[in-house]
Amino acid sequence: MPTIEYVNVPTPKHLVPAVMNLIAHEFGLSVAKEQQYVIAKAPKPTQMDAALIKRVWNESGPVIRKALKFLASKEGKVVVAAELAKEVFGASKGHRLSGAMGAFGRRSKNRYNGLKPFTATWNALNSQWEYTMPADIAKMVAEL
Questions:
Q1: In the predicted model, is pLDDT for residue 59 greater than 60?
Q2: Is the dihedral of CA 122, 60, 53, 44 positive or negative?
Q3: How far apart are CA 135 and CA 74, in angstroms?
């Protein structure tokens, strides 16, 4: 069998099924209508409910889970980034927390319609991030 070289080709999502069918056709495969590749779009969430919190939890690694649990334990109270970093990583210095929160923010934007189980606010006077988890969400997180 000859070696096949692969390349990345940016393709609009709505055209992916047509491209997959074209490739199958080129390889001499016939694809039945019911077997064709279809992109399933999950509905975008509109509120932070128990199902979404469970989904966020299940899709999170140990760092974000630890941060969520700590914020839940401080329900409704402001937690500064240094305190959260010390709890999660054992030290308040460094950029690991900002990296984890940045990645979580991108995931939240792309998967959860921008919804997060906590608020993150920049305090310009103190030059630090402050995190708060509402009491109702904290109770749901605590049960996980």
A1: yes
A2: positive
A3: 9
